[in-house]
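Section handout 9: paired folding examples.
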Amino acid sequence: MIKNTARPRGRPRSFDETGALEKATQVFWSKGYDGVTIDDLVVGMGVGRPSLYAVFGDKRAIFLRVLRAYAERQGASAAKALLSEQSLRDSIADFLRYTVESATEKGSARGCLLMCVAPLVNDAEVQRFLQHAAAGGAALLERRFRDGISAGDIPPDFPVAVRAVQVTDLARALTMRARIGTPRKTLLKDAEEAADLVLLPRRV
């Protein structure tokens, strides 16, 4: 008697989806969004054109997936640095140091995909994503400042919302300076000093 066993539809994927998206990140880094073609992605991701469209979609869809995956990785690492069990000053310094280290990582493009590539993309969904990511970062910093108030590191009238935005602006500035080639050593020194500036008392 011959058993009628069901076969899985289609061929099993011969590539790692996560790895392919990481490779796509480097493609967008090297050429910018507008400069990238589907052929570039096929070659860079190591995925055949039919599989690329079937699994990832068109260039815009791939970029959005790359952006989300990149933001998740960066956000998780930044949160780990910021919410560690140490003084508020050291947490802010760790957050800014992480920004510098990420933007100057050896073997990767300098800067940050969210700050150096994505803002140039003329797409409403991309812009909304960036605004949401920026708001999330500021909210995380506000939370850390409020924890600092509870711990007695800063006074109750500390301008939490204003300083949270200032820290994100400092992180953005450090990233852009990394992008234009400022040495890591210089940026790390500036990150340390910036942490002290952020915690200065409110001016009367």
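Moving on to protein 2 of 2.
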Amino acid sequence: MGIWTSTLLLVGSLSACQKPTDHQTKQQSAEDQSLEQVKKNGVFRVAVFADNPPFGYVDSAGKPQGFDVALAKKVTKDLLGDESKIEFVVTEAANRVEFLKSGKADAVFASFSVTPERKEVVDFAQPYLKAALGIVSPKAKAITDIKQLEAKTLIVNKGSTSDIYFTKNYPKINLLKFEQNTDAFNALKDGRGDAISQDSTYALAWAAENPTFTAGIQQIGNEDFIAPAVKKGNTQLLNWLNTEILTLQKNGEIQKIYDQTLKPIYGESVDAKVFLDVTAK
């Protein structure tokens, strides 16, 4: 099985055979070798969450589980012939871009929403889920309208889509930011915030498993696409992932992964198409 670790960057020495500028040559070489380097290493290093059920988490046996994890394993099997050749790199929301930039991970499968700002610093492949933002609050003091949060405290993950969205659009809402999901939801349970905002995929799942809380606002903000990401310029690996995700969507494999990992949480009340009907990047 995969190992939970944050590995160091393996830097390859690449030879140039073209005659543009040195910078162009080095950049092209890096782009051309991104997929070959993964195959040469014999391991696919994937950044995932460890505390974001049901998408990426560690079970009671200490093994990684969840939708993103299962999808990453399937991708690894198709890429390297064996899902055990995956190496999981534990990340937090704020570290996903940096892990790609620094080379600690070859790809990110961690509920990574595509935004214009992020597209400037990483390359996103074909999306595999879509979601807006959801807001969860205690049933006894349910937040059902965004205006109820003015001058109150909303808990978010630092660097997350929720952090970016509410910072930009709702300056009258006080944000309490945490690095890790576990700390964020513990703060909600402890009453340190009036509500918490997460991707709707996660918000609905968490509320379903915590009956004293409710997703009073199930969707707010723009509809986001969730996709794998690679280091900016890793075009070869990016193109392979584009083809792979499209294939898994067309042949029903992503639906199967949904049925195994998410349907038991959402039940029949949530139509899988709400999350899986991805028609654009």
